[in-house]
Amino acid sequence: MEQNFDRFFKEYNALISSSNYVTRRESLKLLSELLLDRTNFNIMTRYITDPQHLKLIMNALRDKSKHIQFEAFHVFKVFVANPNKPAPIRQILFMNKDKLVKFLKTFHEERELDGDEQFVEEKKIVISEVAGL
């Protein structure tokens, strides 16, 4: 995958943009698992430095499906948590900071009510990071 990174993710991003609900949801879920697996550190690092990837994931956060939004959040948090964000990524996040913070404050509130502590903690961290830009 590393050797064919550009070609692979060009095709993979088409899956994330698919009109098929199951394809979009499962593609995002698999992507978050792939990026969060330590054995894929180089792939993750390269993926989260591309502004086009960030834009794709930010659009998925706004999907009408709560499930797709939730899967996109797990990818989005990787962009936000990166301590070495390149300037284009910082700029996109900064330009959208107010909208993102407002959006994230009410994002999946039902999970908070259901006691999903891990999600609540991750959401707080993401909001704090974005607000601090």
From TrEMBL:
Q: What's the short name of a Pfam family annotated to this entry? A: Mo25
Q: Which Gene3D superfamilies match?
A: Leucine-rich Repeat Variant
GO terms classed as biological process: intracellular signal transduction
Q: Which InterPro entries match?
A: ARM-like (IPR011989), ARM-type_fold (IPR016024), Mo25 (IPR013878)
One GO MF term: protein serine/threonine kinase activator activity
This protein's superkingdom?
Eukaryota
Q: Which family does it belong to?
A: Belongs to the Mo25 family.
* PANTHER family from the UniProt entry: CALCIUM-BINDING PROTEIN 39-RELATED, PROTEIN MO25
Q: Under which name does UniProt file this protein?
A: Calcium binding protein 39
* Organism this protein belongs to: Eutreptiella gymnastica
